[in-house]
Amino acid sequence: VGQLEYIHLSAPFVAVRNKEVNLTAVLWPSQVGTVTYIWWIGNNTEPVITLEGSIACTFSREGINTVTVQVSAGNTILQDRKTIAVHEYFQSHLLAFSSNLDDHNPDVAEWRLDVSRVIKNSLIQATGVREDQLLVTVLPGLPTAAEFFLLPDKQLTEGKPEKSSAHLDQLSEVLLSALNQNLVQFTLRPGVQVTVYAAHLSAATQRHSESEHRYK
């Protein structure tokens, strides 16, 4: 039995209001004896204590919610925190890249964060979609993959789900059209031009992101 060295809280980037999501604490090494998990979810002041490394929860209010897990094993205590954007409705789609991006992917969180911002900017430039309606996250691992999330415009849709749905269908078509025409590109560094593609074109829209399992 080793000593706990590192933990990672795996959580979806975006969640639907009042729809269950799974949070998982990944430990390294995985065998560290008896482990206690303490979870702080959203604005609940009372933590939840479990002996299992995963928990299901729902968020009743829209906006940014913070989830924190504290892991105790032996005399080691580590914690990790994630933010989850909670919305009434969203659409998401997976992105793929020209293979040259993999050559420059060190698979660390800081790099993913930086490249997520670059991808988001290149999508905005190619399509004119508003910044506050688009979220992009690069997923861990290789080959490099990412996911974009389209969020409803509250003023335009007046909070009505059917208006949100039609509005996001239109936005999604604009983005996928640009991606399919290879209009979304960015320069990673001098001489390295990366093209962004839509992955799994047959699944043109994935309602309520079904790719949560990729968050490891």
Automatic annotation (TrEMBL):
It comes from the Eukaryota. Coiled coil: none annotated. One of its GO terms (cellular component) is membrane. GO terms for biological process: post-Golgi vesicle-mediated transport. This is PKD domain-containing protein. It comes from Lates calcarifer (Barramundi). The lineage of its organism: Eukaryota, Metazoa, Chordata, Craniata, Vertebrata.
